[in-house]
Design a protein that fits this description.
80 residues; mainly alpha; 5 helices
Length: 80
């Protein structure tokens, strides 16, 4: 799977969960990047190397470990 497909798929899953359309601009704000940057990620014209590295790292873990790592990240982000 290409990174742009991953980003589009994640965007679609979040929209389905929230039962509403989420603009690229709103999603960019949620993930902490500029609108144009997010748009380029979705098109595949720009690929964030850090995201690729993180996804490769997560791919080395078991599902339960991935969930734990992401939850810990989320909890830390909510504290800040």
């Amino acid at each position: 799977m290409e990174l742009k497909e991953f980003i589009r798929g994640a965007h679609a899953l979040i929209e389905a969960r929230e039962k509403k359309r989420i603009t690229q601009e709103e999603m960019a704000g949620r993930v902490g990047v500029g609108y144009r940057t997010y748009m380029e990620y979705q098109r595949g014209t720009n690929a964030p190397l850090a995201m690729k590295a993180i996804l490769n790292l997560l791919a080395l873990l078991e599902d339960q470990e991935i969930v734990r790592v992401v939850r810990e990240w989320k909890e830390g982000a909510e504290e800040n």
